[in-house]
Design brief:
alpha+beta; TIM Barrel; SH3 type barrels; 3 domains; 8-stranded mixed beta barrel; 8 helices; 25 strands; 25% helix; elongated
């Protein structure tokens, strides 16, 4: 039994092996035929395959979108487009409130000792301007002196330029001029772009759109910031509100804004201006009074400060300068010999407030060369190698002029209107024995602020008659204050 079973098992195994070999051979033949013929029939261009895939993907996406409820939802309101601010951040800047002024040659020669004593933190100095007609860049006559003297007294420096640029090339030229001008000074506060008067028909910028002018401001300020300074844009509130005359929305995203807004409430009674846009500095009045500055001056508050003053980009590049005595005066150029009608003080500056600026005296018969006649009643003279100044009415080009006999001291030509009021000095003023600063007038005593005397007369040429310790004396009216 066992032998027969073994034989059958062997025969079955051989049969299965044969069938396996046949099937394997058949599969190999079919595979070869597929590779040889079938692959060619199914091959399609690549582009067709990709397009087919995209169509399938699109159909799938549409199906998914139909299933996503948020994909078809539309909000009831659309938000306002918002750009991210790129206003320059400055190392060492603080969020303290600081106070300052802005000045130009229109303030004349400033007594910076007195200004520093007020405790202001900073000054924005006009360094130059482009002329309205010819478009020439000019330096502010007092810029170097103001930068030099303010910095020497610890007042932080900022600056501004008055632009009338009409092309990008001009705006870039202005900025580069400013950067070069400021290189020798320690400028800590921003450098501002100032542009006004463009609505006047005489302006080079008349007819330019707000967008075009704003674009020029950006060219200027980008160049200033590339030069290492902080850019700031100056304009009045009514020009900025609603982008009326400037693209304020764009400018405030890139630079600090210095807004001028004058109202009944000034800082610190009003902590901030009533302006809806962004701002970093507020010019709250143009009628400020600051010791050391003749006339009105702009006052400002900045909503930032600095831990310490910056260093000049080029140490030692700024040359020392003296105050320009002819600031604000227009001279008619002449060349003539003059003499004194009697005797006249020759001064280093055109100021009769005291005698500290008297260099020498010109007597009748002595001559000096007059080189200019000012529109302020003064003459510029060359005398013994010096440029000096004298009151024009005390000079004559008639070299043969002989002074008349001296009148008795009591008979003054100056006429006074009678008054009776108490006055004191604004600071310090000279009381003289005659209503004149020229000889034979002499200073008898000085009146200081807080000392009250009686004024008995006022002249129409700027003099006051006063009673002081039983004496009748005279002083310049503009140096007095009425005491209520």
């Amino acid at each position: 039994m066992s032998g027969k079973k073994e034989k059958r098992r062997h025969e079955r195994n051989v049969l299965l092996a044969t069938i396996g070999l046949v099937l394997t051979a058949g599969l190999l033949i079919l595979l070869a035929l597929y590779l040889l013929f079938g692959g060619r029939k199914e091959q399609e261009p690549v582009v067709s395959a990709v397009q087919g895939s995209q169509e399938e993907l699109s159909q799938e996406t549409e199906e998914e979108t139909e299933e996503d409820p948020q994909a078809s939802y539309e909000p009831e309101e659309t938000g306002t487009p918002v750009e991210i601010s790129t206003v320059k951040e400055v190392a060492g800047e603080t969020d303290e409130t600081t106070t300052g002024i802005d000045v130009s040659e229109f303030q004349g020669n400033i007594d910076w000792d007195q200004v520093a004593d007020t405790g202001i933190d900073f000054v924005m100095v006009r360094v130059g301007y482009r002329t309205a007609g010819s478009g020439e860049i000019r330096e502010d006559a007092c810029a170097r002196y103001n930068l030099q003297e303010a910095s020497a007294r610890g007042i932080h420096l900022g600056a501004y330029f008055f632009s009338t640029a009409v092309t990008e090339e001009e705006a870039r030229e202005e900025a580069r001029w400013v950067c070069e001008f400021l290189a020798g000074y320690p400028v800590t506060y921003p450098v501002a772009y100032n542009c006004e008067g463009f609505q006047s028909e005489s302006s080079r910028q008349y007819g330019m759109s707000a967008e075009d002018r704003s674009a020029l401001a950006q060219v200027f300020l980008d160049e200033v910031e590339a030069g290492g300074y902080t850019g700031m844009f100056y304009a009045a509130r009514n020009e900025l509100e609603g982008n009326l005359l400037w693209d304020a929305d764009t400018l405030e995203l890139k630079y600090r804004i210095w807004v001028a807004r004058y109202g009944d409430a000034v800082w610190p009674e009003a902590a901030e201006p009533d302006y809806s846009g962004e701002y970093a500095m507020w010019q709250y009045t143009n009628q400020g009074s600051v010791p050391g500055i003749d006339g009105a001056v702009d006052l400002n508050v900045a909503y930032f400060g600095y831990e310490e003053a910056a260093s000049a980009q080029e140490e030692g590049a700024a040359e020392h300068v003296e105050a320009d005595p002819e600031v604000g005066v227009t001279f008619e150029e002449v060349n003539e010999q003059v003499t004194a009608k009697d005797e006249v003080n020759l001064r280093s500056t055109m100021d009769q407030g005291d005698d500290s600026n008297v260099v020498t005296r010109l007597l009748n018969g002595d001559t000096a060369t007059r080189t200019g006649v000012g529109n302020n009643g003064w003459s510029r003279l060359e005398y013994n190698g010096q440029t000096l100044y004298a009151v024009s009415s005390y000079l004559t080009a008639d070299l043969s002029y002989t002074p008349p006999a001296e009148e008795p001291q009591s008979e003054f030509k100056t006429q006074f209107t009678t008054v009776s009021e108490n006055v004191t000095a604004k600071e310090v003023t000279n009381l003289r024995n005659r209503p004149s600063v020229e000889p034979p007038s002499e200073v008898i005593v000085q009146l200081h602020n807080g000392e009250v005397i009686t004024r008995t007369g006022v002249s129409d040429v700027g003099w006051s008659r006063v009673e002081y310790n039983g004496q009748t004396l005279y002083c310049i009216s503009s140096y007095l204050l009425v005491v209520e």
